[in-house]
Each structure stands twice: as structure tokens, then as C-alpha cells.
Amino acid sequence: MGITIIATIFVFSVIVVIHELGHFMTAKMTGMQVDEFAVGFGPKLISHKVGSTVYSLRLIPLGGFNRIAGMTDTEQAMTAVRRNKCFISKSLPARLLVMAAGALMNFILAICLLWGVFFVAGTVQISPEPIIGQTINGSPAARANLQTGDRILAIHGEPIYQWQDIGRVLSKHQKDVVTVTFKRQGKEETAHLIPETDASSQRQIIGIYPVEQKQRHGFLQAGKLAAFQVGHLSGFMVQGIYQMVTGKAKADLAGPIGIAQIAGKAASVGFADLLVFTAFLSTNLGIVNLLPVPLLDGGHIIILLVEAIRRKKLPARALVYVQTAGMVILGALFLFSMFKDITRLF
Fold first, then answer.
1. Which residues belong to any copy of the PDZ domain (predicted)?
2. Which value, to the nearest 10 degrees, does the dihedral of the CA atoms of residues 121, 209, 133, 117 take?
3. In what order do the strands lie in the sheet with 178-184?
4. What is this structure's pTM?
5. Superfamily the domain 127-214 falls into
6. What is the per-residue pLDDT for 131?
7. What ranges do the domains of the chain cover?
8. Over the stretch 272-304, which tens digit does the pLDDT of each residue have?
């Protein structure tokens, strides 16, 4: 439990603070007044004012936030000096940059994390051969005495030629006793076991990992590979969101509980795995924040573009309706993801 809590705080703090740092830096660059840059939420523990900005550390270490003048204040309530440095007084490109910078920083963070992991630890290549690289303690495979190096030949009479064939065949035998035929040191043997259902993926598993081979990379090669991986992952996520929205794929979201569980598992394997998961979640946050949903950065960008086309601000009542719709959408997604997390637990 302890490692899960620490890993969750680390992951959320890093990706949210870096996201807010993107808004902060671009706001400063474009001459906007940032009233506060906070790490954490809740009551202040420490605060210090530098120039016109208060930098604070708060009690709940799960992210952070910016208070940029003009994003919540009304223009009439500002002084002339403050009005000149507020968000709404700046040019459209400046405001678009500030709104997009958070997501951009998330992508940069993901690339930097993967770059470091790929350069220091290398990458792992998964062998397509149906050879057991490792068994999980207490799993059906371990109880059936399957061992590292065993080559699986058949499951329940169906030939196994590649590692991916294992999952395909097991999916047909939920709660069935299956016979696994394997070769060990040149001798063909059999084992009998019952597959289990994985809580997160709902797939049938027997508790085995494939053979892994590490590959080292030079500094520039690692950076290139990291950028490619983040780009590929972003495209995959966008496609997944599109399929869920259009009903072509089942909506399967992870909420705070699910993320905490995954973070804890990653941290228990090693710090490099936790960094890889942080990169994955940072990419996810970048994509989600650019969605055209009110209250998200993407929603703000759409509003800015609409106002630019209209050459005037949206009516206050329209903004209230838009923000209310955004709250409903985000609230529904949060409740749905929490429901999915709870159903996975049981």
C-alpha cells in the first residue's frame, strides 16, 4: 500500500506540475500576469512572493495550478495596469499558445522520460517464440510446475506456433481445465491447469511472461525512438477515443483508483517501469486536455477560435451554458471511470 501511495503521488505530481509549468512559462513569455504558481492543492504550507507572482507549496501533493490574471477576473474589476497584463488583453496567438502549452509540455515530458529510460536501461524486445521467460508466483502455470525455458507446443490440443497464439487459445477455455503440452530439455511433457481471468484486461491468463531480450541504444537513437513511441502512442490513443465515441469500441476507462493500482504495480517492478508509466500517462493527459470539451484546454482553444471568427467575445450566458455542459461531461466521465475501477476491484 505504501509504495502505491508514493508512486501515485509521484506520477500525478510530475505530470500535472509539468502541465501547469507549460501554461506558466508561456504566460510569462507573453507578458501575462501570473498571480500564483502552486504545487499541490488545499491549504498553503509554504509561500514566497517573487516579483508579482506567489509561489506556494500546498498540503495535498497531487498536482498544482496557475492563477493567470484575466482568466477568471472580470475585465471591469481590474486596474488599468492589471488589465494590460491579463489573459484577455493579449493577442489571439499568445492566448492560444498559453492554452496549448500545457499539453505540449506533457508530450515533451513523455519524450524526455522515455529518452532517459531507453538510453540508460535500453529497450526490451519480446520474443515471438512460445517459450516461457518467467512464471508468476502462485499462478496456474507455477502451480502446474511450468518453468522458464519451457516451449509450449499445444494448449488443449491446439498447436501453438507463436506467443500470441497462447492468448487466442486460452480465450476459448474460461474456467476449463486445459492440457498444456510443452517441451523441456528436448523431452515432451504435459501439464493440467485452469486459466484465470485478469482483472484489468478481462483476458484468460495462466501467469507466464515471454522471453525478453534487452537492446542498448545510443543517445540520439534513444531520443529518436522516444519521439517515435510518443507519436505512435498519441495516434493510438486518438484512434481509441474516436472508436469509443463512435461506439466502434467498448468504453474502457481507468479512474484514480485504476491509475493508482497501475502506478503501484509499475513501481514494484522498478523505477524505470514507473517512469515509463508516467510517460504513458503524461501522453494521455496531453491528448485528453486537447479534446474540444469545455473546461479542458481544448475547449478553451475552440472558444478562442470561435471568438476570433465572430470578432467579439461570446455572451456571458452562452459561456455559462458551455461551462455547465463541460462540467456535466467531465463529471459523467469521472463517475463512469470510478465505476469501472470499482467493478475491476470486485
1. 131-160
2. 0
3. 158-159, 151-155, 178-184, 187-193
4. 0.77
5. PDZ domain (2.30.42.10)
6. 94
7. 2-31+90-122+233-345, 127-214
8. 899 999 999 999 999 999 988 888 899 889 989
